[in-house]
Amino acid sequence: MSFPTSKQHGYLPVPNIEDTVDSPRPRSDLEAPPKYSYFEDVEEQEYDAMRPRKRAETWKTTLTVGFLVAAAMYALVSGLRGAFGGSACRGRKSGLPTHYTLPSGDRIPSVALGVWRAEKGKVGEAVKTALKAGYRHIDGAWTYGNEAEVGAALRESGVPREDIWLTSKLWNAFHAPEDIEPVVDESLSKLGTNYLDLYLIHWPVAFKKDTAFEIDWDLTNDPYPTWQKLEELVEKGKLRNIGISNFNIRRIQNLTTNPLKIKPAVNQVELSYWNPQPELLKWSKENGLLLEAYSPLGSAERVKESLNIPIVKSIAQQLGITPAQVYISWHVQRGTVVLPKSVTPSRVEENFQITRLPQRHFDQLEEAAQSHKPERSVDPSERWGIDIWN
Ligand code: NAP
Questions:
Q1: pLDDT tens digits for 137-152?
Q2: C-alpha–C-alpha distance, residues 124 and 265, integer Å
Q3: Partners of residue 256 on adjacent β-strands
Q4: Which of 17, 32, 44, 285 has the most CB atoms less than 10 A away?
Q5: C-beta 351 within 6 A of ligand 1
Q6: What is the pLDDT of residue 42?
């Protein structure tokens, strides 16, 4: 089978830094004041009901042009909904959000393929399997070391660049403002694109240049200079949305107390049966900050144990789905993006099939997850010599 050429699909034909620098995607909403809220796009609900900006536009049209034009607008919006729904079929069946709308107006798909520890030689096939299964969101990072293979797979898939949500992350060694753009360019080059949909500060921890894990306390205690550089790269068009990862409430407020031009669009954190973080979830909802659930199955070390939890097996059996699908559905039903990782084709496909859990099952799982002492699967605090969670 021959794939269409990369140029036809919006990827850079020969990824190199020169190609990426001066060709940012135009961004019409840059001047708009940042709003700090997000909306869920649930496919069963009326598109307008979930999109206040669209509703306002339709209202204006109704006033000025009358009922016939409003009816035409409705037909148009219905068409747009079909065209932009991505995995509309899954959304319609699942009763769960397929996307969330960020303050920039961009729509982030609710289920992503995570690629941490997705080995070279396997990650490309996993990405292609995911795209065939309907995923349109890949969660990567510079430090995962596999962006070139991910980029090649994206080009070979034939899926247009603008249909895919690509996330990458700023590694701890590059928090100094002058180091950020070169490492963003490196990710762009490897992924073969000229913009990232989302770029996160990977950890609220800065390392000193050219050291293994030596902490740069100035940039760790005050991430504002790092953030300002990211804002600049949004203005340049290289990044469309910026966010944070592994930030607790104190660290979020330490950042947002500054006069930010762009507030963090998301916070990517560990959320699982083992570490459900209900307080952070509640606070984030109250403050309009979307969470992304990493290690949603308990990560490689605990996935087997997670899938054997009796209540999860019982819910899965009653609903005729798998334990992994119970967890992934639960995360989206909690109102977060979810990032399951797999390089096993059947699991990649399985993980994309989600469904709304009946309320009593959702409550049972929520209660079970909160009824034990929280335990983290990913915690480099000791290795790096910093209590990341304080
Ligand atoms: P995870 O998704 O909870 O678990 C991945 C493990 O589960 C792999 O061993 C995978 O095996 C297995 N698995 C996946 N689906 C399965 C299924 N349906 N049945 C049985 N086993 C299944 O853990 P994670 O990789 O730690 O986290 C997911 C993603 O979150 C990462 O890839 C990354 O994108 C992101 N993340 C971000 C951070 C951060 O600091 N921001 C930290 C950790 C993770 P196979 O691959 O062999 O199928």
A1: 999 999 999 999 999 9
A2: 28
A3: none
A4: 285
A5: yes
A6: 53
Q: What is the pLDDT of residue 57?
A: 39
Q: 3-state DSSP call for residue 369?
A: helix
Q: Report the separation in Å between the CA atom of 301 and the middle of ligand 1, taken as the mean of its atom positions.
A: 10
| Cα separation, 292 vs 241, whole angstroms | 14
Nearest CA-CA partner of 161 in 39, 20, 22, 30? 20
Residue nearest to atom 38 of ligand 1 (CA): 294
Ligand 1 pocket: which of 123, 169, 295 to mutate (most atoms within 8 A of CB): 295
289, pLDDT greater than 80: yes
Reported in sequence order, the residue ranges of 36-120 that DSSP labels E, i.e. its strands, are 39-42, 97-101, 107-109, 113-114
d(CA 195, CA 201): 16
Residue 389 Cα to ligand 1 midpoint, Å, equals 21
Instruction: State the pLDDT at residue 121.
Output: 96
382 alpha-carbon distance from chain centroid: 27
Distance CA 30, CA 287 (A): 22
Q: What is the CA radius of gyration of the chain?
A: 21
47 is catalytic: no
What does the DSSP 8-state code read for residue 24?
P
- Ligand 1, atom 10, residue with closest C-alpha: 342
Extract the runs of DSSP E, i.e. beta strands, from 202-325: 242-245, 266-270, 290-294
Closest CA to 276 of 157, 377, 360: 377
* DSSP assignments along 43-61, one per residue: TTS-HHHH-HHHHHHHHHH
